[in-house]
Amino acid sequence: MSCGDPHETDCSEVLDHLYEFLDREMPDGECTKFEVHFEECSPCLEKYGLEQAVKKLVKRCCGSDDVPVDLRSKVMGRIELIRSGHLVPEQDVAAPSATPQEQ
């Protein structure tokens, strides 16, 4: 997705880090770069608006649900493994690995 015009911050970078921007998990300088990009690029602004709306809808519909403690612990454990480099995000961590008999 791109408007076809050159930008200081490439559309692919903006879209790759869109959720970090939405969740305010990036430094202020990076946020400013994204805000400037959205002012210049209507396709990225549209994608941002759509993702923001979905996030608000999910929060409204599911925001009051309590997360089971064991699920939270598992998710936080996986995040720590990814951050430490022991697990790559692309791995399917939910699927059990196949045993030699299954292969």
From TrEMBL:
Residues 11-44 form the Putative zinc-finger domain. InterPro entries: Anit_sigma_mycothiol_RsrA, Znf_put. This is Mycothiol system anti-sigma-R factor. It comes from Streptomyces roseicoloratus. The lineage of its organism: Bacteria, Bacillati, Actinomycetota, Actinomycetes, Kitasatosporales. The gene is rsrA.
